[in-house]
Amino acid sequence: MRLVTPVRRLVQLLLVAFVVIYFVLPQIAGARRALSLLAGVNLWLIVLGVALEAASILCYANLTRAMIHGTPPPYLTLLRINLSTLAVSHVVPGGAAVGGALGFRLLTRFGLSGTDAAFAMAAQGIGSAVVLNLLLWVGLLVSIIGGSYNPLYATAALVGVLLLGGFSAAVVLLMRGEQGAARVTRTVASRIPFLDEESVYRLVLRLAARLKTLVADRRRLVRGLLWDLGFWLCSAASLWVFLLAFGYRAGIDGLIVAFGLAYVLAAIPITPAGLGVVEATMIALLTFFGADRGTATLGVVSYRLINFWLPIPLGALAYLSLQVEQETPEGRRRIAERQKATELRRLAERSLRESEEHRVRIGRREPPPESDS
User: Fold this and answer.
1) What's the predicted TM-score (pTM) here?
2) Short-list 323, 327, 314, CA closest to 88
3) DSSP assigned state of 274
């Protein structure tokens, strides 16, 4: 059993090496013919690209805030939690799950209930995937109308259909058949060791209630979608600016297709956050849309330096600051106050739900009114 973890890590490293050697290095090699571009790079555009990527991260923190039911932690705390989860997801293959687990733990530690934290993490993750696929479909449609077609388009469309279909089915199931979904989940949980089936059953019901609350609150739903859209568009704009800094003005359709398809493929848990996959896909598609390979390589690699690598040390610092804050008397007092407020709200919601269920049961037992005739 002791060999399982080292072997797994070795396989992961080999996969990373395979992608880097066979996909990234051949692309970067083209940049050797374009080193003269570095002398003419526009540094102000580089600064603008960094600012747009920072704005993307800020939008994602606002998305997290919009998905939280009740009173969220302070914005700066949410921003640091997101940076921490982002850093983890960038160093572990399939890191979205590991980052989500860390985000859940930090959100509950800073005052959220388990239900609210789980719903917020799930809603922002699924919502981001849906918005990205919708953006990609728009780009594909405009590109095809304009006369450009690549065999990867069919794969991207199929992945999008499966994703949106699964998401829609899950939403309908939770909205209209939450009792059935909870019973099925309880049955599955009963067969898994270390899982409390009744706790899982109640969690599914609470998540369904949160989903109904979110759908009923149209303003919060629209606000979340706009922040999500801002997250992706700011990052795509950052890529466009980095390419422009090296002299290539990308068309909007080509940019969206290259950007969207790269991040859709990055969801396949081969390398951390699609490292190598994103670079290879972006460079190949931008070249397909007319960019010089050297220019595309320099622009994409510079963009990924900020988009992928910079959040790792920033996230580590953010996590350390959260740990320090928890150890200070003031930090402990604030966390205790938020946890107390969350517990009081949870008890009030439970009491309201139980009274509503009791009223429904009483109503079912009431005899029908007598006819006047």
Assistant:
1) 0.76
2) 314
3) G
